[in-house]
Amino acid sequence: MSKQLRQDLTYDASLAAVAAMLADPAFREEVCERQKVLRHDVRIETTGAGVEVRIEQVQDAAGIPSFAKKLIGDEITIVQEEHWASPEAGDITVTIPGKPGDMRGTATLAESGGVTTETVDLTVKVSIPLVGGKVEGLVADMLRKALLVENKVGRDYLSR
């Protein structure tokens, strides 16, 4: 089983400005703070033509349905890794260390008329018998909400 998540995030800025924002540790830090994570560590490294992003964050599991909370506990550690080979395209992997599942996919940037759209396309897979599909839906919903917060922070960031 798996669940697809596709989300378009638009920015009133050039592709170059959005790519620079996504490679800025201050932007990624602000996103974590606005998502109200308990703790986070952001690392961004430029490698030749690409950018490597690693964000480890710990979120409170309050508000998560009881069937899922039994599986993950009171806190959720999430590791997001992005490998941008160019400003236009990157691979994304999101894992919850020690838990059976991950999210994998891509992010692409496309500019038209001074507006850049970031398209995030992920496959959420949780390998837990009987409840895996429910957990995949829960994770996809959480990730969509996190992306919408990131989009809001990005729009604010780019308007400064």
Explain this structure.
There is one protein chain. The chain is of the alpha+beta class. It is built from four helices and seven strands. A seven-stranded antiparallel sheet has the order 1-7-6-5-4-3-2, with helices on one face. Helix 2 (25-34) crosses helix 4 (132-158). The chain starts with a strand and ends with a helix.
Distance between the termini: 43 Å
The helix-strand sequence is EHHEEHEEEEH
The helix count comes to 4
Placed side by side, the strands forming the largest sheet appear as 1-7-6-5-4-3-2
Question: In this structure, how is the largest beta sheet organized?
Answer: 7 strands, antiparallel
Unreliable runs: none
Molecular shape: globular
Name the beta content range. Answer: over 45%
Strand runs, count? 7
Determine the fraction of residues in helical runs and give it as a percent range: 25-40%
Main features:
single chain; 160 residues; alpha+beta; 7-stranded antiparallel sheet; 4 helices; globular; DUF2505; DUF2505 domain-containing protein; START-like_dom_sf
Summarize the structure.
By secondary structure, the chain is α+β, with helices and mostly antiparallel strands. 32% of the residues lie in helices and 45% in strands. It has a seven-stranded antiparallel sheet, with helices on one face.
Layout of helices and strands:
Elements (H helix, E strand, L loop, with lengths): L2 E9 L3 H8 L2 H10 L4 E9 L2 E11 L5 H7 L2 E12 L2 E7 L5 E12 L2 E12 L5 H27 L2
